[in-house]
Amino acid sequence: MHTALPYDCWKAIAEHLPHNDLPALSLVSKDIRSTVEPLLYCTISWPWDEPVPTRRILRLLRTITHRPELSSHIHHLSLVSTRDVFSSEPWTPPGSDLDWDAEQAEYRDVVSLAQDLVDDALFPDAGKWKQALRDGDPHAFASILLSRLHNLRSLRLDYKFVWMSGLPGLMLKHALNPTTPASAGGTASLPTFQFLETVDYGSNARIAQRIEEEFELDTIEGYPDCEPEQFKAWFYLPALKALAIWLRDARDINTNSNIHQLHTLILARATISEADVPRLLSQTTPALHTLHLGLAYRWGQETTLANGTELLRGLDAIAPSITNVSLGLEYYPPTFGEYYLDNEEEEARRAPFDGFLLRLRSPRRVEVPVTLLVGWDSTRSLDDLSAVLPASVEEVCIRLDFGGVGSMDWTEVSLLEWVERHLEGLVSKRPNVREVVLRTWAPLKVDWSEEKRVEVSEMCAKVGVRLDVVDDELGVGLWTRV
């Protein structure tokens, strides 16, 4: 009979089954259920698409409240959107998969349990939390669920958590750094996430809403405001090794943080100042081998590379150890030609970055905006592309950042022609390079560039280099992810 098999055998069998088959297997017998249950709960991965899975969150929270031993089995939690959101779409709150007004009575017990936890743990702004729970806010219930998962190893949360509430970060801040000595005792019911090594907190942040007319620059805020206190605590997780975050505020992230433990740091569309960069990166150690530094600048209020020397100082801090590095620069909100920059001023600010990649000791994969690598003038020809790439580089990605700027000379075709001009020297002087990727802003894609893509791809293939062209929303680096 099936129950005659030892526990280890059933566990080995279950581990090789598709996750969707485990619920059916768990119904076979009590013995098998006890074997399968840890695997059934080990990974919770639900798309945070519209409608968001509020019912699942509520039911899981109810289950682990009544059976708290199950929470120890949950090692991986992912609530991230699976669909692309394009820059033409407005920022609207996601809908839920339940009608809260009509169905809330069914979950009255969960609301009460969650509110009791808020009281027991002495949450700051308890009234705000309890009101969100009464209103059926899925982000609030997901944050309470997170506060029950003391055995987590990895966590991925959608950018909507950053934008809509910031509650996960506020909960974590209270768990790790109680606001007052008197509240420290109350946080005993909150985990300190001693095993949480990998965190993605909103790195899938979408590009700001695109504008169609110049006058909208003053009426569209670009990125919505968000709670500034939600970010700090993520840098203080005790076991943190990899962090990806949509960092909107870098205040108070100081030398007491655990940045020195990181091997991967992803700063996605960060709206921090350039002066914050060396302060953060100087806290890293040779353990850091992967970095994406993406900075977003509010058009009309900020200027890219106004403090470019600070960025260079930050890169110097990670130069000895970094192997995968990606840089991204953007103005927001994006548009189709209403930004007209003074290219001479832009070039003057960029000048200190000539050959800046050579500061890195042994990078293997680099991704960089063409304006930073070459300049704003697409007709400019470097004497030798290989001269600005470290000899260790194997894969190169050149980004067409600033695609919405009216004075931007670079296009996909001019980028392809530029690669064409430098291919021979690149192959002869940087033989380690095996892949070149051109990354462009999807809304600017034009069909008539396809012929040139094929032509240059075939030329690259003949000399043993793979050429790829990626059209997307220019998010985090292709090789720098958690």
Automatic annotation (TrEMBL):
Name of the molecule in the record: F-box domain-containing protein
Taxon lineage: Eukaryota, Fungi, Dikarya, Ascomycota, Pezizomycotina
InterPro entries the UniProt entry points to: F-box_dom
Chain ranges of the F-box domain: 5-36
Native organism: Aspergillus taichungensis
